[in-house]
From TrEMBL:
Superkingdom of origin organism: Eukaryota
DNA repair found in the keyword field: no
Residue stretches of biased makeup (Low complexity): 104-120
Positions with biased composition (Polar residues): 1-14, 82-93, 123-158
Designated name of the protein: Ubiquitin-specific protease family C19-related protein
Amino acid sequence: MATRTGSHQLSNGLMVSGRPEQQLKERQPTIASRAFPYTGGDVKKSGELGKMYGIDLSGGDHHHHPPAGPPKLPSRPPSSSQHNSGSARSGPNSGPIGAKMTNSGPMSKKSSSSSFSGPMTPIQPTGLITSGPLGTSSSNRRSGQLDAQSAPSSFNKSAYGSAVTSISEEVKLGFRVSRVAMWVFLVVVVMALVVGAFLMAAVKKSVILVAVGAALVPALVILLWNYSYKKNGVLRFLRKYPDAELRGAVDGQYVKVTGVVTCGSIPFETSYQRVPRCVYVSSELYEYRGCGGKPANAKHRFFSWGCRHSERYVADFYISDFQSGLRALVKAGYGAKVAPFVKPTVVVDVTKGNKQLSPNFLRWLSDRGLSSDDRVMRLKEGYVKEGSTVSVMGVVRRHENVLMIVPPTEPVSTGCRWPCCLLPTYIEGLILSCEESQNGDVIPV
């Protein structure tokens, strides 16, 4: 039969069962044996805590006087509105902070600046923690949507670096004729003219000279026709070029793919109309030069339109093939050669009868450092919006499971088209063509 355990009485008079504990020795305290004074919400009475906040503890009555320690570090400039307890690292603390943080008690006016162990980056208005200012700029880079005053008026290429291709030149369309053939043709023409002139002076007959002139006139007409119809001939060639199926395309094959485009990692926005999520944007300012007007550029002739400012950007994007349904990455960024055939539209037209500029257009000019003088101007914008149907012509590249379309290394020839009397025209770079209408044929993605 089990023995019955006894009971004992605690020091507070409560009877409990069991035997009393044998305290061999006094238990060591887990914290400092020094008693902490009761602050009552007054930071001046908190000792080291008040010292961290830069409170002068020399005046006033308090229970605990902290021992003399190392000299205080220089306090944070008064412009800072953040107060942290303890040592602070170089990065900001997590969580948004208001204009001033209040403590659990009244603080003196001297607590507007705190002592820190190093420089501290303020918390961003979005609440996200960043690693501090980037580059040599003193302002911090904010993530998310910028304020209306600090938001850039146009796309800033420097924010993305080499990932964006800036197209500064017009599309290069040229004729390539063999130098040997050109010199042979010139020698034959010169000899024919010399012989014709000699026979005309000696025999008094101009039959040979007339025959030479009859042969040269059609050649000159064909050259003028090719020069004037060059771009339209290229567009016709692009429309009639057959579409290829990406599923059966081999590596290194030159193809034309028609489908719906989607933005890559860098979507664009037009600078004036603010059309979002575009894979290609362009803004061009043209000026008309009359008899005594100022030229817009070095090649601006009289009584013609000249381009004064141009900005065109494109980056990597995706295209979904209509025939196979596959999606390919179009490598148009990182300085790739791109030949865009996107017709821009006139968004601002300043004529002699209507020279009153809108505030948006004045802001657009001032952001680019352009003067708003008494000139006849036109602002044209072109873009390829996400969901638009476009055609891309380039070389297929397969890298593991990624299907890409890259620019060709050599210029592409349109070939000689005898029915139209057009000579071979060469196009450099990745070809990007889009229909004129951008609003009606956009597929939501």
